């Protein structure tokens, strides 16, 4: 099977990468995580109040926040895993489309929101489902590591707020909750995690699909504005790079490694017309 990309299809692939399912996954994940973080903070304050510890200096030692809700970390990891594996599938279907195949991923198609539904369903027919055990495990382990960091940061942010209130002269649960509600922490922190994780999983899906389908070369694409990292401008200027080899930044693909927070870059494959590709179905 061979495929040739016209400029129009390249354009469409880049547009899908930037505006389609991925941003919807990001927004849904952000909303979900922010809601969970706020809920965790509220529960902690309610429990401190119930145990008359709200104004105790050693309240955090006597009642660690995580003891109030021991399932918090696992629930955050679960949300991250679910969103990341759907984002991986979204990256995979875009990669398949870029290679000239028509593909759909049922979980991506089911995303609520008109934009993702229209763009994804219009373009893809082949069914992709991430059933590969090693890749699922890799996504799960990353989700667990990020969840662990997220819980630590949430506990610290909550303790900071309560300490500030205590220093200002006594806390009531109502005042603590009002202050937490005014804070941007849950939304901005959840936003950073959601953007970084959905992007990383999406780009990983794209990359694995090239590798497993037989694409040999690809090039780095930035969105072209002045917020793009200098290293990523250099990556784009490099042109074609062999799939699996590092770009000048040292990254193998966008979303790879620590240079990826808030990154919006993507890649497009080089698909020579005579090349035989076997589209990967996620297994
Ligand atoms: Zn970038």
UniProtKB/TrEMBL annotation:
Protein's name in the database: Phage Mu protein F like protein
Pfam families: Phage_Mu_F (PF04233)
Domain Phage head morphogenesis: 166-268
InterPro entries named in the record: Phage_head_morphogenesis_dom
């Amino acid at each position: 099977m061979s495929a040739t990309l016209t400029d129009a299809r390249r354009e469409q692939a880049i547009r899908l990468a930037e505006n389609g399912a991925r941003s919807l996954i990001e927004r849904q994940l952000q909303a979900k995580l922010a809601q969970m973080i706020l809920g965790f903070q509220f529960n902690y304050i309610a429990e401190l109040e119930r145990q008359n510890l709200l104004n105790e200096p050693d309240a955090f030692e006597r009642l660690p926040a995580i003891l109030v809700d021991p399932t918090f970390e696992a629930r955050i990891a679960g949300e991250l895993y679910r969103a990341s594996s759907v984002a991986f599938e979204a990256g995979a279907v875009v990669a398949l489309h870029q290679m000239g195949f028509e593909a759909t991923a049922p979980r991506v198609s089911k995303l609520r929101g008109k934009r993702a539904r229209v763009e994804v369903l219009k373009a893809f027919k082949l069914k992709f489902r991430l059933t590969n055990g090693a890749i699922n495990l890799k996504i799960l382990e990353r989700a667990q590591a990020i969840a662990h960091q997220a819980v630590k940061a949430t506990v610290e942010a909550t303790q900071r707020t309560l300490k500030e209130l205590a220093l200002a002269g006594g806390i009531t649960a109502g005042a603590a909750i009002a202050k937490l509600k005014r804070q941007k922490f849950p939304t901005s922190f959840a936003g950073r995690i959601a953007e970084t994780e959905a992007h990383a999983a999406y780009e990983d899906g794209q990359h694995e699909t090239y590798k497993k389908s037989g694409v040999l070369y690809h090039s780095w694409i930035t969105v072209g504005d002045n917020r793009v990292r200098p290293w990523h401008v250099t990556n784009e200027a490099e042109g074609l790079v062999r799939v699996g080899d590092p770009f000048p930044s040292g990254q193998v693909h966008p979303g790879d490694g620590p240079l990826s927070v808030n990154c919006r870059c993507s890649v497009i494959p080089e698909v020579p017309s005579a090349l035989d590709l076997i589209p990967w179905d996620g297994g």
